[in-house]
Amino acid sequence: MSRPTNTKKTSVLTWLPWLLLLALLVAFAWLFTSYQSEQDAVWQPPRAEPPTQEMQPASDTPAPVGSYHDAVARASQSVVNIYTTQVVNNHPYMDDPVLRRFFEFHGGMPEQEHGETNLGSGVIVSQDGYIVTNAHVIEKADEITVSFNDGRRSRATIIGTDPDSDLAVIKVDMSGLTPLAFRSKPSKVGDVALAIGNPFGVGQTVTQGIISATGRTGLGVNKFEDFIQTDAAINPGNSGGALVDAYGQLVGINTVIFSRSGGSMGIGFAIPTSLVEQVMNALIKDGRVRRGWLGIEVQSQLRDPTQLNTTTGVEVLNVIPGSPSAKSGLQISDVILSIDGVEMTDANTLIQYVARKAPDTVLNAQVLRMVGNKQVNKQIQIILAERPPQENVEPPLIDQPYLEEPSAGGFAEDSGNGTPMTEEERLRLREELIELFEKDAARNKQ
Predict the structure, then answer these.
(1) CA distance linking residue 86 with residue 407, whole number of Å
(2) What is the per-residue pLDDT across 211-255, written as a single tens digit (0 to 9) for each?
(3) CATH number of the domain at 69-172, out of 1.10.443.10, 3.40.50.300, 2.40.10.10, 1.10.260.40?
(4) Catalytic residue annotation
(5) What is this structure's pTM?
(6) Out of 45, 74, 176, 406, which could bridge 248 as a Cys pair, Cβ 3.0 to 4.6 Å?
(7) Measured CA distances, 234 to 17, 44, 89, 193, 241 (Å)
(8) What gap in Å lies between CA 319 and CA 199, rounded to an integer?
(9) CA–CA dist 320, 297 (Å, integer)
(10) Fold of 292-303+310-386
């Protein structure tokens, strides 16, 4: 009876070495394959994973996006067209006695008053009628008319203007309006941008692009600059209109374009909502903007792009006597490295930072000062004063950005062929009139 059992044991012992060998071969093959895969992975180029819903930025592209209709429908009801009229009293011939006499002999002087109409855009920011626009849109306006998306129209009054930032607040006597929500997060380069306004007076128009850059300064357009740059088409008449994201949230107020022709070249600038909100609240509350002031003249540290280690900071060129900086002990040739822990990389950064602070704010500046032959770090506390009125900033003469201030109507001198009279033609007419008057005078004497 024990014989079959022995047979089974013999059979198992016969196959066991082969099974062990097979297991070793499988293990060796698996180890070799894994090692080869690791070696291959080291030399493979980086590959971008296809974007998923979770990987896409929450700011703008939740999609694929087939249409921005919902965003535009949400934002467009809060964007208005603004028409301003300015009464002009001075006629170009009034100051010339010869030309004045000519018109007196031929039916009297032309009409002294005429209206010049400008156009722009604005954004509703409250249900009770407050609207934000550009200061240059309503500059010198005698009458402001606001046209709403639903066809209604209303006269507006000026609440306050801030030419330093080119922002203004006007108000219409209406209620139940739809304000445009401000985007809470800062814009990022590459975000979708939609510009809504009234280009060339054709009516409300939407153009689409992206955020090309943020924090643009040094353009020479405004005293305080912190522009968003976009390639969404902005044209004359878009000034004061809305720049919104893919959700229809306001990210900026369209202000200026860089152009050699007067039309869009894909370089437009908008004032970000962070600055808009500060100026808007100040104008509504006080009718003006109070800004902090250090009382110094500065320039950016020169940096050599060929050097790996360069010095950042802002050098103090002058300290105004009696100013906050003078009282704090800040000295000429000091280099301001940071304020409140924020690195001052250039003069524009310092000016923008201080301008956004209210008077009486205490700033802690880290300064690099030469003491003998050594540079010493010092901490200086400065209490800001209110910025005094400043002279106007003249824009650069070369490659000057084109401000959208188109006019319609008004008076144009006519040379007789439907084109405006040139200065040369005016002088020639004046000489001919003088000759005629002299002949008339001689004839009367005879």
Answers:
(1) 10
(2) 999 888 777 777 778 889 998 988 888 889 999 999 999 999 998
(3) 2.40.10.10
(4) 136, 166, 239
(5) 0.66
(6) 74
(7) 82, 45, 33, 11, 9
(8) 45
(9) 8
(10) Pdz3 Domain (2.30.42)
